[in-house]
């Protein structure tokens, strides 16, 4: 049994889902746990969806903005250096803001996973959606590193576009 558990997460929150029972409420307890678990799953899916939408939209939108800033033709044709640098700074600040938002999303996401594990533990589930999730095969292969790479690349691209615009080559 222990070998089957290796490479999986079983650490749960120490916070109970339900407080001390008041009288006999075993059916009520099970219903509350199922309801709470459903809410945890819904919130977890929502946070996952937000992350993937941001990661799907940010690179192409950034690409369009970057092409406009460094191109001498197109929508920004004839635009002076100052506004181009301003747009690059704006893009960088938006990217940093979204990165900060994503970090907070990570904290909420991780807390929901911990709470989901606790709910599964209290419901008697041994390996479920949260409890017993596979550990990444490689320690570096995780959501945090992937999002850092995307946001870092985009941030550096905005900086490079601003530097390019500052040289006046467009």
Q: Any idea what the shape is?
A: elongated
Q: What gap, in angstroms, lies between the N and C termini?
A: 65 Å
- Give the helix level as a range of percent: 55-70%
How many E strands?
Answer: 2
Sequence stretches where pLDDT stays below 50 over 5 or more residues: none
Give me the Rg, rounded: 23 Å
Question: Percent of residues in beta strands?
Answer: under 5%
Series of H and E elements:
HEHHEH
Number of helices: 4
Structural class: mainly alpha
Mean pLDDT comes to: 86
Arrangement of strands in the largest sheet:
1-2
Largest β sheet strand count, sense and barrel closure: 2 strands, antiparallel
Brief overview, please?
This protein has helices at residues 2-5, 26-70, 81-123, 143-166; strands at 8-9, 133-134. The chain is mostly helical and 170 residues long. The protein starts with a helix and ends with a helix.
Structure description:
There is one protein chain. By secondary structure, the protein is an all-alpha fold. It contains 4 helices and 2 strands; from the N terminus they run αβααβα. It has helices at 2-5, 26-70, 81-123, 143-166; strands at residues 8-9, 133-134. A two-stranded antiparallel ribbon has the order 1-2. The longest helix has 45 residues, at 26-70. It is elongated and about 70 Å long. The relative contact order is 0.18. The mean pLDDT is 86.
């Amino acid at each position: 049994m222990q070998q089957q558990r290796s490479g999986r997460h079983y650490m749960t929150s120490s916070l109970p889902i339900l407080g001390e029972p008041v009288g006999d409420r075993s059916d009520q307890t099970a219903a509350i746990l199922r309801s709470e678990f459903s809410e945890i799953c819904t919130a977890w899916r929502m946070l996952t969806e937000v992350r993937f939408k941001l990661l799907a939209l940010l690179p192409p939108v950034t690409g369009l903005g970057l092409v406009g800033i460094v191109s001498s033709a197109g929508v920004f044709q004839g635009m002076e250096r100052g506004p181009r640098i301003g747009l690059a700074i704006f893009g960088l600040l938006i990217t940093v803001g979204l990165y900060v938002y994503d970090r907070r999303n990570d904290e909420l996401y991780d807390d929901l996973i911990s709470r989901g594990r606790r709910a599964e533990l209290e419901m008697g589930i041994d390996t479920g959606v949260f409890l017993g999730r596979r550990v990444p095969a490689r320690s570096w292969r995780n959501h945090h590193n992937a999002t850092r790479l995307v946001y870092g690349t985009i941030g550096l691209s905005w900086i490079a576009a601003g530097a390019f615009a500052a040289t006046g080559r467009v």
